[in-house]
Write a structure and sequence with these properties.
Blueprint: H1 2-20, H2 23-36, H3 42-47, E1 53-58, E2 61-62, E3 66-67, H4 74-84, E4 88-92, H5 102-111, E5 115-119, H6 125-133, E6 138-142, H7 148-160, E7 164-169, H8 172-181, E8 185-189, H9 201-206, E9 215-219, H10 225-232, E10 238-241, H11 243-246, H12 251-258
């Protein structure tokens, strides 16, 4: 399974990172960032958008599609996203499978005023401290990748560091875990992380099961304005779009389409 392969490699990556920069050092960096204050509130940015908010993803490649944008420039993509009307950004930091990196995150952080999500397969508190140290406003937690106790620990740490946690689910069982956790930002991944098959039916099935309160993000499989309208009709607050944007020649125009400016 693709997810299992990624997680197994991630354990190796985190171990390497700890050797290069010990946990205590990265924790101190995170605490300094926390003391500076002024995080760009990620969840709040989504909820204040008119209509369905767009989280535009800085994405070069994926395990299933390979390289998505050959002339990949993370800063230029982020600028087009912001100019087009995106409410927030997601930046992939996985190197092995998505050809991302924390260097991409840092470059974009310096170039945008938008709130930013660290899109990563987070399996260790080290990665949460790392995210804060690099200026992340939110961190992704994938329920399918985490044991319940570790999920609780990571979620609590993210909140303690004054970031938002995007808790991602794609089944009823995972949704129950997210709700029991008290997640106030829930991502519904329309892509099965084991098969990589994508369908908006996942959002259609799970959104009605979420009580009032959490902000809801529909992720993957959003390619056009009609898709945005479809998930808006069922109560989604935001969409996360990567591939459909990164493939476009006129990225800014595609962003405008997805936020309804040219619909």
């Amino acid at each position: 399974m693709i997810l299992d392969t990624i997680i197994n490699h991630k354990r190796f990556e985190v171990a390497q990172a700890k050797e290069a920069l010990p946990l205590e050092a990265v924790r101190e960096q995170a605490e300094r960032a926390l003391a500076l204050g002024g995080p760009r509130k990620f969840r709040a940015s989504l909820l204040k958008a008119q209509g369905v908010a767009l989280i535009a993803e800085v994405k070069k490649a994926s395990p299933s599609k390979g390289v998505i944008r050959a002339d990949f420039d993370p800063v230029q993509l982020a600028r087009w996203y912001e100019e087009g009307g995106a409410a927030a950004l997601s930046v992939l930091t996985d190197e092995r499978f998505f050809q991302g990196g924390l260097d991409h995150f840092d470059e974009v952080r310096r170039s945008t005023s938008l709130a930013m999500l660290r899109k990563e397969f987070v399996i260790d508190p080290y990665q949460v401290y790392e995210a804060k140290a690099h200026g992340a406003d939110a961190v992704l937690l994938i329920v399918a990748a985490l044991e319940p106790e570790l999920l609780k620990e990571l979620h609590a740490l993210i909140l303690a560091l004054e970031m938002d946690a995007l808790v991602e689910v794609h089944t009823e069982e995972e949704l129950k875990v997210a709700l029991d956790l008290g997640a106030d930002l829930i991502g519904i991944n329309n892509r099965d992380l084991k098969t990589f098959h994508t369908t908006l039916d996942v959002s259609r099935r799970l959104v009605p099961q979420i009580p009032p309160g959490p902000a809801i993000v529909s992720e993957s499989g959003i390619a056009c304005w009609e898709d945005v309208e479809a998930v808006e009709a069922i109560g989604v607050h935001a969409v996360l779009v990567g591939e459909a944007l990164a493939r476009e020649e006129n990225v800014k125009a595609k962003v405008q389409e997805l936020v309804g400016r040219t619909a």
